[in-house]
Amino acid sequence: MTRSLGGAELATTIRDDASGAAAALADLGIRPRLAVVLATDDESTAWYVRSIAAAAKRTGILCDIVDLGASATTGQIHGTLVELGHDPDVHGIILQTPLPDGTDLDALREAINPAKDIDGANPVSLGRLVARLPAFAPATARAVIALLDHHGISPHGRTAAVVGRSTVVGSPVANLLVQRNATVTVCHRHTTDLAAGTRDADILVVAVGIPGLVTAEHVADGAVVIDVGTTATTDGRLLGDVDAQAVDGRAGALTPVPGGVGPVTTALLIAHTVDAAAAQHAQHAQHAQTRSDSVLAGFRSGV
Ligand code: NAD
Fold first, then answer.
1. Which of 108, 153, 269, 302 lies 20 to 30 Å (CA to CA) from residue 78?
2. How far apart are CA 108 and CA 114, in angstroms?
3. Domains in the chain: how many in total?
4. Helix (H, G, I), strand (E, B) or coil at 105
5. DSSP 178
6. Residues 101 and 154 in one domain
7. How far is Cα 253 from Cα 236, in angstroms, rounded to an integer?
8. Nearest CA among 174, 221, 152, 162 for reference residue 5
9. Ligand 1 atom 1: the closest Cα is on which residue?
10. What is the pLDDT of residue 294?
11. What is the pTM of this model?
């Protein structure tokens, strides 16, 4: 029997903790604010953004949806990101994909202020993550690790396979698993024999976007399978990358889609925004202290 690794309970705990931290910030006159920048008509993206806004509201933080429209240019999106990066009332920024064809996603990711990069999209955040320095990890990658922890599954000393190597999910997940002392194989679209790369893994993370890609032949007996994939169907369903029926009884545990990685990701985006607001407040307080110290030093020295 395959155990279901749901994410709802963990998501609630993360949101409750964030809510407490947001209330403490409110006592200091700070209201964490998240800005989600989007430029698409895509209905599943709109649905995802609405779920972030709803989670923000439940947690007591502000969420602005900055919809630039499906014909926005790189210049317009870039200008908006820079403006939000300088706005002292905005603490977290998400650049939602997909973006209009032809936009320069790399340049746009670099335009996100790293202090507000709560979904780890700026290459600076990713570099710091790999260098094991403090940084916001992409929320989905962190959600995978948080789910394992929540369900008492340690990657330490285990073999893991990650299918997908995007900079937002696959690559950071693989890196976080290595940091947690797993031995990791990364598979991608050019992997010639996917099953050979995955079928011995104790932990299998799939982040591709092809419904049903992973079947019983890809899964070791008793493996823990984390399905990150989400593909929206025209009739409103959300499909994972793993054929849940095919791996049932073979996998030891499997995350459901929906209800697994997704709600934890959303909760972490909110928690990261609260953390970013607290960090920015602490930094401002420190600057103010340094300024006042140097003014006092000036008085003392007669400058
Ligand atoms: P992406 O398109 O950027 O990357 C897909 C990856 O899959 C690539 O690295 C590619 O090499 C690999 N790939 C493609 N075909 C393959 C094949 N046949 N065999 C092996 N690997 C193959 O996608 P992404 O942004 O990394 O997202 C992956 C999936 O995760 C999507 O379904 C996305 O919707 C979902 N997602 C879910 C959440 C969540 O919170 N649950 C968050 C982000 C993304």
1. 269
2. 12
3. 2
4. helix
5. H
6. no
7. 26
8. 152
9. 166
10. 74
11. 0.94
Alpha carbons 185 and 263: distance in angstroms, whole number: 26
Residue 59 lies in a domain: yes
Looking only at the bridges linking them, the beta strands covering 3-4 and 253-254 are: parallel
Q: Residues 102, 45: one domain?
A: yes
φ, ψ for residue 251 (rounded to 5)?
-65, 145
Q: Which domain, by its residues, includes 247? A: 139-261
The answer as to whether 233 is a domain residue is: yes
229 and 200 inside one domain: yes
Q: Which residues contact 215 (CB under 8 A, 6 or more apart)?
A: 243, 246, 247
Q: How many of the other CB atoms lie within 10 Å of CB of 102?
A: 7
Quote the CA–CA distance of 233 and 279 in Å, as a whole number: 40
Site residues for ligand 1, CB cut-off 6 Å: 140, 163-166, 168-170, 187-189, 191, 194, 207-210, 228-231, 261-262, 265
Alpha helices, DSSP H, located in the chain: 8-27, 43-59, 74-86, 105-110, 123-130, 139-150, 170-179, 194-198, 244-247, 261-300
**Cα(75)–Cα(68) distance, integer angstroms:** 11
User: How big, in percent rounded to 5, are the helix, strand and coil portions of the chain?
Assistant: 45, 15, 40
What residues pair up with 282 in beta bridges, in sequence order? none
In sequence order, what are the beta bridge partners of 34? 63, 92
Give the tens place of pLDDT for each residue, 243-286: 999 999 999 999 999 999 999 999 999 999 999 999 999 888 88
Phi-psi region of 30 (alpha: psi -120 to 50; beta: other; left: phi over 0): beta
Mutational pocket test of ligand 1: of 118, 169, 227, 272, the residue with most ligand atoms within 8 Å of the beta carbon: 169
